[in-house]
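[audit] Reproducing an earlier prediction to check determinism. Same input, same settings, fresh worker. If the tokens differ from the archived copy the diff job will pick it up downstream; this log only records the rerun itself.
[audit] input (149 residues):
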Amino acid sequence: MKQQPGLTLIAKTVTRISVWLIVLYGFYIIFHGHLTPGGGFAGGVVIALAFLNVMLAYGHETVTRWLNISFMHDLEPSAGALFLTMGILGIALGGGFLANVVHRGTLFNVFSSGNILVLNIIIGVKVAMGLFVVVWSLAIFRFFEGGDK
């Protein structure tokens, strides 16, 4: 019998069920970061760990087929450019780098923070894609003994 990549059937089943809940929790942390503790960085780490969970359970070959790694790799610097664009918009419209240019809504509402929600989403995407691409790169990189291999 051929050995399947990844962990046991039980671990794969638990991962298949729980990964979407972990991603949903990461989105919750990102979207409520201006109202509760958390934000873009913490939510991005949670989402990256959800992808890491899939990679550990199924193996990096399966994740490479399942996810579009080149899109994730391109999305990470695009989020950085979008963050910089929000900062320049603040200079152009508000008078200072990252000045508030989005209308603030009702206090304690999801859309009550102006730029902060938008910046949390951008940071969440950047952190999630950056961390996962780094971990994925380390998983596929092989260390060989001896200098030439």
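[audit] rerun output stored. Observation attached for the diff report: The longest helix spans residues 69-94.
[audit] end
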